[in-house]
Amino acid sequence: MRGPRKLEVVEIKSRQITICWEPFGYNVTRCHRYNLTVHYRYQAGGQEQVREEVSWDTESSHPQHTITNLSPYTNVSIKLVLMNPEGRKESQELVVQTDEDVPSAVPLESIQGSTFEEKIFLQWREPVQTYGVITLYEITYKAVSSFDPEIDLSNQSGRVSKLGNETHYLFFGLYPGTTYSFTIRASTAKGFGPPITNQFTTKISGI
In which element (H, E) is residue 84 found? Predict the structure, then answer.
């Protein structure tokens, strides 16, 4: 008896992988008591996770199996294990990386603002779950209130884009004593994650 052969990837998504292999010959299928399991392992939260699933698609002319509930942008090691009364045979191991996905939000507590009269220096950290390579940060801002009710705040808004390795920006030309709302969202190649908002108020001269 030989082990499963020609283990290949059919499709890769951010949270699932579909594999296929060469159909078994009569020397395997003639034995009614056999089973095929898909063994896979990956890192999650700093620990190695080991899983196995029974594949029921063993008599098809194009057998396939889809592994689900995976994490995006994660290396997964996969092999097939065939067992029957004659023993146990394993396929070669495949190492496959799941696709990227949109990231989680930038941590709210990481958004810090150093405030001056007409400037705010904004800093933040990347999302806890990047699910890929962060390529871009988008920051939208607008003035929401001022100590001086006569000030026209309608022109105090805008949008800034920063590269994925830049987690700070100096906003200038702001009004003193004015509260600004900053909304940040991170992006991978798959798109933007959820936005997160924080507010900071510029200083007033002499205060």
Answer: strand 75-84
Report CA-CA distances (Å) from 11 to 66, 68, 71, 133, 157: 9, 12, 15, 21, 44
Element (H, E) at 80: strand 75-84
Q: For residue range 49-72, what is the model confidence (pLDDT) as tens digits?
A: 899 998 876 677 788 999 999 999
Neighbours of 182 (CB within 10 A): 21
pTM exceeds 0.85:
no
Kindly indicate the confidence band of residue 206, based on its pLDDT and cuts at 50, 70 and 90: low
The tokens describing 206, both together, are: 């002499």
Q: HSE, CB side, 13 Å, CA atoms: give it for residue 21.
A: 26
Give the Cα-Cα-Cα angle 19, 24, 30 (nearest 5 degrees): 145
Asked whether the CA dihedral 37, 38, 44, 47 is positive or negative, the reply is positive
Closest CA to 183 of 171, 170, 194, 172: 194
What domains does the chain contain, in order, with CATH numbers? 5-98 (2.60.40.10), 108-201 (2.60.40.10)
d(CA 104, CA 68): 20
> What average pLDDT does this structure show over 83-89?
82
Render 6-26 in DSSP notation, one character per residue: --EEEEE-SS-EEEE-PPP-H
